[in-house]
Amino acid sequence: MSETHSEIILVIDSGCDLPLECIKQDNIVPLGLVCNFKGESIEDDFGIKFTRKEFFNALRQGEMPTTSQINSQRYVDVFRKYVMEKKPIIYIAMSSALTGTINSANIAREMVLEEFPSADISIVDSKCASLGQGLLVYYAYEMLKKGSSKEEIITWIEENKLKINHWFTVSDLNHLKRGGRISSSAAAVGILLNIKPVLFVDNEGRLTPFSKCRGRKKAISTLAQKFKEKTDPNKEQVIAISHGDCIDDALALEALVRENGNVKDVILNYVGTAIGSHTGPDMVGLFFIANER
């Protein structure tokens, strides 16, 4: 029997930062990355119980959380469940350059294949993060609803994942310093001069500095400018904006981007604990499809 769209399972991790209304679908199975927060290991539940407000308020008060990958057993449990139901699985993983969690998934896949040699489990390194990864999930689910095959969905992801642009800025340079993204001296000078860095995700799926802006407003307008430069004004698309508990800045960015006239819809959401632990509060990110990154 050929697979129908209702049989394919999309496994996702909380690195994708999608809103709850996007992931509460029968064919989507979410797994939370682990945040080590106030002495506890907390699985990110996409903001249901462990709210984003609570998380970012703690960061503003000086809390310094760390993150852990999803262990193999959690993947085994999910994969086994759907393999036993004879359902094909696609896991769209957060960039391997930013987390080792895809390694856990690959180990789990091998373990399940030993038990079920005919198991149909595909693991895709998205080379994306936050709502860049979320956009891939969004488009994959749209294809799934239209009846696309597993092979068609994976082919589309592989052909388009490096077209997903990630542009973002942060407010507090200390979090980037702690994550090794910038040096202590650069952070100190940046804070003194009100420098706001603009970063992007490169083709390897790594965070990469792009430019330094004087002031927050300039940094946000730079994000909108990248969208204008890189997209076709005659082709509408769904874009995404994530934020670290700074909705007004996110809405200001949305208004600037919509001026381009080619925005069909906007997925707007908090950045989650996996990304937020490293970017800090007041991060603003813009995600869209272009010819290249």
Report on this structure.
With 293 residues, the protein is of the alpha/beta class. The protein has helices spanning 20-23, 52-60, 72-84, 101-115, 130-145, 150-160, 173-178, 184-192, 216-230, 247-258, 273-279; strands at residues 9-13, 28-31, 34-37, 40-43, 66-68, 89-93, 121-125, 164-169, 195-201, 207-214, 237-243, 263-270, 284-289. The strands form three sheets. Strands 10-9-8-13-11-12 form a six-stranded mixed β-sheet, sandwiched between helices. A four-stranded parallel β-sheet has the order 2-1-6-7, with helices on both faces. A hairpin with a 5-residue loop joins strand 9 and strand 10. Helix 3 (72-84) crosses helix 4 and helix 9 (216-230) packs parallel to helix 10.
Determine the strand fraction and express it as a percent band: 15-25%
Label the overall shape: globular
Rg over alpha carbons: 19 Å
- The chain-level structural class is alpha/beta
Summary tags:
293 residues, alpha/beta, 6-stranded mixed beta sheet, 4-stranded parallel beta sheet
What's this, in brief?
By secondary structure, the chain is an alpha/beta fold.
Topology:
Layout (H helix, E strand, L loop, with lengths): L8 E5 L6 H4 L4 E4 L2 E4 L2 E4 L8 H9 L5 E3 L3 H13 L4 E5 L7 H15 L5 E5 L4 H16 L4 H11 L3 E6 L3 H6 L5 H9 L2 E7 L5 E8 L1 H15 L6 E7 L3 H12 L4 E8 L2 H7 L4 E6 L4
Parallel strand pairs: 1-2, 1-6, 6-7, 11-12
Antiparallel strand pairs: 3-4, 3-5, 8-9, 8-13, 9-10, 11-13
Helix pairs in contact: 3-4, 5-6, 9-10
